[in-house]
Write a structure and sequence with these properties.
- The protein is of the alpha+beta class and 221 residues long.
- The protein folds into 2 domains: 74 residues, Arc Repressor Mutant, subunit A (Orthogonal Bundle); 117 residues, ADP-ribosylation fold (Alpha-Beta Barrel).
- 27% of the residues lie in helices and 24% in strands.
- The chain contains 7 helices and 13 strands.
- It has a 5-stranded antiparallel beta sheet with strand order 4-7-11-12-13. A 3-stranded antiparallel beta sheet has the order 1-3-2. Strands 6-9-8 form a 3-stranded antiparallel beta sheet, with no helix packed on it.
- A hairpin with a 5-residue loop joins strand 8 and strand 9.
Amino acid sequence: MPTRHESISKFLSLVLRHQPGAVGLTLDESGWVSVDELLRAFATHGKPLTRADFDDIVARSDKRRFALSPDRSMVRANQGHSVQIDLALLATLPPNVLFHGTVERYLPAIRVQGLVKGQRHHVHLSASRELAIIVGKRRGEPYVLEIDARGMVASGLVFYRSENDVWLTDHVPARFLIDALLLTENQVTRFRPIAHRLGPRWSAQRADLVSKPIQSRDEPG
């Protein structure tokens, strides 16, 4: 069962990314809202939160989901919005390879569509395999997809980087998925090439694979 800290953190993400109206708030055009207004709104809607607890949630958020203004009077989510806001991000040259954590049930659609942003503003990618593992583990046994970011840039696709170092792009076409890693019990099984092997019953019998130990870490609480 989630702790109160985890529950409030998830609710804060919901409010700042998707449903500010759930507590009667309105985000400004860049996604910011007054911390004092937010705390009053939480209290009014049965989720009282002290400023000290709020600061602790922001500081301990895995992936640094939240940002405070320099004077700490305003807060916003760093990325992941479905409400219409402008984060004013600048196009940035990414590393040659980026990563995306997912689970098996999404692989058939990814094989056909690539990675799509859905209701979010962007597809979210990680700079390291370890961060992608954390993302994938939230939904089950993690598959980590390796993305040919260099090839995407050469094809004219644009990347942005959020304040908490999440890489963002509008779409990852399937042809730029260069590898997939199935992580189980500190072991990585590599399947390639993803464009031809990926499917709902992807197994070792249908792929060339290499297994080796990896260094992983548990998802922060």
